[in-house]
Design goal:
The complex is a heterodimer. Chain A is α+β, with helices and mostly antiparallel strands. In chain A, about 50% of the residues lie in helices and about 20% in strands. Chain A has helices spanning about 10-50, 55-85, 95-115, 130-145, 190-195; strands at about 90-95, 115-125, 130, 155-160, 165-175, 200-205, 210-215. Chain A has a five-stranded mixed sheet with strand order 2-4-5-7-6, covered by helices on one side. The radius of gyration of chain A is 21 Å and the shape is globular. Chain A starts with 11 loop residues before the first helix and ends in an 8-residue tail after the last strand. By secondary structure, chain B is of the alpha/beta class. Chain B contains five helices and five strands. Chain B has helices at about 15-25, 35-45, 65-75, 90-95, 110-120; strands at about 5-10, 30-35, 50-55, 80-85, 100-105. In chain B, helix 1 (about 15-25) links the parallel strand 1 (about 5-10) and strand 2. In chain B, helix 2 (about 35-45) runs parallel beside helix 3. Chain B is globular. The chains are: A alpha+beta, B alpha/beta. The interface between A and B is medium-sized, with 20 and 14 residues.
Chain lengths: ~220, ~120
């Protein structure tokens, strides 16, 4: 790749700027959703007072649908807010299980665009001291590297557990159909580079990919 | 006849507080609204609400400052903080100053009314 085409890395200041504005926007989203929620709730209250009238059941059903989408919006807004706050402190001590939950929630849609379901299995709490942004990027690239190779309708399972040295993730591919999926011998360039930068080791075992970090918090901090 | 519980709702999102006030009125509360900290403090002094539901982040005076000054003026008032994305630090600070409770938006109306009733009962 020529120097002209190479994408520049995002500096800490740029990441912090993007995070700050994104976090602020998520507050506004929450306010918008809260107004929609209260308005929908008031409509429901008034319906209860109104008694029977034509199309009542249909309106109740539609208010229920608004409620479901509100919950979806609230969840997304919460995950996005946490994502936006990642650059606040680099490096820092954090729970990789919480970061993994947040990442899989936000990565669910890009995986779905490849018609792969990203499924968060058990992730036990732990502690790491490292750059959460770099780790976020590395995990995302490793997941995307797998789901892009999977046939449509497959599932990519994500789980994690603390280890003596730090934390370990298991990315387990569950290919759809007859299993025309053969994992690559080597991870893709982007995934390998991101993992190397984040200090993650990659170990392939059949269809599974294990990622390990040894960034345990320093003693005495 | 029992007097309705007086509640002051403070949030710069007017559509949010006016709608929430209407829902509380339907449930028998006497709900007033304020859209900033200064108006909230004026209302605390003038109307002596029993409970205040207070947004944490508003233009001008912050929710924490409104909380601090309200408790200084009206020590018996119960203040429920209600915020979009408050941090643990915000929560700890609000509770240290003397908030009765700390909630995240959205809040279920039945949970909120229960909490308001509990807050008033705690003053007796």
């Amino acid at each position: 790749m020529s120097a002209r085409k190479a994408k520049p890395d995002c500096s800490p200041d740029e990441a912090a700027h993007q995070g700050r504005l994104t976090a602020s926007a998520t507050h506004e989203f929450k306010n918008v959703l809260a107004i929609i929620g209260e308005t929908s709730g008031l409509m429901e209250d008034l319906l209860d007072l109104a008694g029977e009238f034509p199309h009542r059941e249909r309106i109740v059903e539609l208010i229920g649908r608004v409620g479901q989408q509100l919950e979806r919006g609230q969840r997304l807004s919460t995950w996005l807010n946490r994502f936006a706050h990642l650059p606040d402190q680099r490096p820092c001590v954090f729970d990789p299980a919480a970061l993994t939950a947040q990442l899989t929630a936000l990565a669910e849609r890009p995986a779905r665009l490849s018609r792969v379901e990203l499924r968060l299995d058990e992730c036990e709490p732990g502690q790491l001291e490292t750059d959460p942004v770099g780790l976020h990027i590395a995990l995302f690239e490793a997941m995307e590297d797998i789901w892009r190779r999977l046939p449509e309708g497959s599932v990519l399972h994500v789980s994690g557990e603390p280890t003596a040295e730090g934390y370990s993730w298991l990315l387990r591919a569950e290919p759809n159909g007859n299993g025309n999926y053969e994992p690559a011998d080597e991870p893709g360039e982007k995934a390998a580079r991101a993992c190397a930068r984040a200090g993650l080791t990659m170990e392939r075992a059949g269809r599974d990919l294990r990622l390990e970090s040894s960034a345990t918090p320093r003693q005495g901090d | 006849m029992i007097d309705a519980i007086s509640v002051l709702l403070v949030d710069d999102e007017d559509d949010f507080v006016t709608t929430l006030a209407e829902r509380l009125e339907l449930r028998g509360f006497d709900a007033q609204v304020a859209n900033d900290g200064e108006a909230a403090l004026a209302s605390v002094l003038r109307a002596a609400p029993q409970v205040m539901v207070l947004d944490l982040k508003m233009p001008g005076m912050s929710g924490l400052e409104v909380l601090r000054r309200s408790l200084a003026e009206a020590p018996d008032i119960r203040v429920i903080m209600l915020t979009g994305h408050g941090s643990e630090t915000d929560r700890d600070e609000a509770m240290r100053i003397g908030a009765y409770s700390y909630l995240q938006k959205p809040v279920d109306i039945d949970s909120l009314t229960s909490l308001i009733n509990e807050a008033v009962a705690s003053t007796v």
